[in-house]
Amino acid sequence: MASTGRPKAELVLSEDERAALEGWVRRRSTPQSWALRCRIILECATGATNKDVAQRLGSTPHAVGRWRARFVEHRIAGLGDMPRSGGPRSVTDEQVAALVTKTLESTPKNATHWSTRSMAKEIGMSQSTVSRVWRAFGLQPHRVEEFKLSTDPYFVDKVHDVVGLYLDPPERALVFCVDEKSQIQALDRSQPVLPMMPGIPQRVTHDYVRAGTTTLFAALKIASGKVIGSLHRRHRAEEFKKFLITLDKQTPADLDIHLVLDNYATHKTPAIRTWLVAHPRFHLHFTPTGSSWLNLVERWFADLTNKQICRGVHKSVQALEKDICDWISTWNTKPRPYVWTKTADEILERLAGYLNRIPDSGH
Length: 363
Fold this sequence. Notes:
Number of strands: 5
CATH class of the largest domain: Alpha Beta
CATH superfamily of the largest domain: Ribonuclease H-like superfamily/Ribonuclease H
CATH architecture of the largest domain: 2-Layer Sandwich
Shape: elongated
Number of helices: 13
Largest sheet: 5 strands, mixed
Low-confidence stretches: none
CATH topology of the largest domain: Nucleotidyltransferase, domain 5
Number of domains: 3
Distance between the termini: 88 Å
Structural class: alpha/beta
Order of helices and strands: HHHHHHHHEEEHEHEHHH
Mean pLDDT: 87
């Protein structure tokens, strides 16, 4: 009976070709796509049909037929990716380099940064071409990130001190991150809030009515993530001392207490120093000036702000304080510690990279 189906191209391997293909199949570093093409050619050389080869190797008869034909016509070179169809490249390497240089080293006359449209008009390219080049080189002129370099003369020592507490806390001691979130405003919207509906987000008026402010003193236990909080209407050393007394009462008396906090003036008054002398189990560790990012309680404050305060509606300070207390209680039922991972040396190495990019940093 005559065979049916499309006739397959005859494939015969030379000894050198077979040795090369078998070597690529055995080599672990060979890309999987290339190794599969080599296996297809080796199986086809045994006289098997495209369908049989596809079943053995988990491919398709169409793919096997394509690589068989490519090999017969071009030999091993045919197993590579052939040039694709389409128009010739219209943007040269020199034009790309000029675009990147202009993006990095200049700004438009009427704006602080380039847009794809303004850059395309400036250099005579299409907007889509500018967009593709920017994506390829990771350029985002519309974005800006903030930073601040600490001028604390003891920056290095303080970084090692605070990070050391996070990564290797002392035995028989509790480590807390402490700070105040001051001037929390009780805000009531001037008109009722319109609830969310399908296809329509929650809507609030842009104006509001101020009902007063409060201050939250908080201590985040780094081991467990639990928070001890205290609310006060004023923000003075007297209130901070009351908060320290609260910490003293709510922690086991046989453990030392290490507090990570910033350099705010209320933390260093004579009254606070006198209290600390009378309570020697308390040890204060100050973050460098302008380095609040070292204090983990700031991350907890961000959660409180985003999930409770930012979109809250409070007609009085008492209502605001009740919601904050309820949120802390709910948090403490299932606390989540924030895990610090960077070592002090890694932080300082990254800082050195910033300094190298600032010619007048003085370092």
